[in-house]
Amino acid sequence: KAGVTQTPRYLIKTRGQQVTLSCSPISGHRSVSWYQQTPGQGLQFLFEYFSETQRNKGNFPGRFSGRQFSNSRSEMNVSTLELGDSALYLCASSLVRGPYEQYFGPGTRLTVT
Amino acid sequence: QKEVEQNSGPLSVPEGAIASLNCTYSDRGSQSFFWYRQYSGKSPELIMFIYSNGDKEDGRFTAQLNKASQYVSLLIRDSQPSDSATYLCAVNKNTPLVFGKGTRLSVIA
Q1: Which residue, A8, A11, A58, B19, has fewest beta-carbon neighbours within 10 Å?
Q2: Which of A45, A91, A101 should be substituted to probe chain B, the one whose Cβ sees the most B Cβ atoms within 10 Å?
Q3: pLDDT tens, residue by residue, B54-71
Q4: Which distant-in-sequence residues (6+ apart) come within 8 Å of B72 by Cβ?
């Protein structure tokens, strides 16, 4: 069974630009969550999508947004990039919502210059 | 008070020893508890989960949960150099998961 896939794996952008990251969950998984990981803050929750609806949102500015498609694939978008947005962005999928195991993709390493 | 706390380490153990990693959490209503292993430059990998008080064993790994004391631990028996990584504790009441900042484990050959 294929795992969670994320594209692109690496990205370099300049301040003010916008970026879109993509995540394909494990086949059959319907819940997708996004996290930002930085050395100082650790893993921080961005948002969760289930059945094409955002179910939870973390404490991030409105520049961070996302969506989920009918095939459970998800995208997240960051507009007006700032230097502090440089991080590893991780997508995790789980079978359904709730306190169930989440499996992470390889991540997208975003560098903002 | 931080929601999920872990000692950042590094925790150094000799090869073949038992490594003991600990995690405390603040939300008494937490229901699910997870341990992830993250190698440098890689994404977290789920290695154990536990939902009920007591011990759960899987190979060389044992997760221990004590809800009354609000702690969860991970024991790694017969530690190997390949176990050297950062171990993340995650706690879930509903969604989303709340992660600790991880404990760095170093197994010395």
Answers
A1: A8
A2: A101
A3: 999 999 999 999 999 999
A4: B22, B23, B25, B33, B35, B50, B63, B64, B65, B66, B89, B91
CB contact (8 A) between residue A101 and residue B46: yes
Rg of chain A taking only CA atoms, in angstroms: 13
Interface contact A40, partner B, CB < 8 A: no
Q: Provide CB contacts within 8 A for B5, sequence distance 6+.
A: B23, B24, B25, B100
Residues B76, B84: Cα–Cα separation, whole Å: 11
- CB contact under 8 Å between A90 and B46, yes or no, is no
Here the tokens at position A102 are 């989440």
| Contact call for residues B96 and A33 (beta carbons, < 8 A) | yes
DSSP structure string for A30-57: -EEEEEEEETTTEEEEEEEEETTEEEEE
The one-letter amino acid at A10? Y
